[in-house]
Design brief:
mainly alpha; 3 helices; about 0% strand
Length: about 80
């Protein structure tokens, strides 16, 4: 019987790194995924509420400022072509 694989090597976020370094084989990872139980019926919707109402507004202002800079560059380019 094969030695059990350390569970930290099977984490979806890091398994590629561990496969490249030889800590876990692709076959071991696929076997692990195939053996997982389907628990999708246990899932529940999640709602997230932001406490800081100004947070969204700050992001919008940053995008507007970036757009203004681009518009100024275009005006300079068209003015020099005349």
């Amino acid at each position: 019987m094969a030695d059990p694989v350390n569970p930290k090597y099977l984490d979806k976020r890091t398994t590629e790194r561990y496969q490249r370094s030889g800590h876990v084989s692709e076959e071991d990872y696929k076997r692990h995924i195939a053996g997982l139980e389907d628990v999708s019926e246990k899932s529940v919707p999640v709602e997230t509420l932001m406490q800081d109402e100004d947070f969204e507004d700050d992001e919008d202002e940053d995008f507007e400022d970036e757009g203004d800079e681009d518009e100024g560059d275009e005006d300079e380019d068209t003015g020099s072509a005349e």
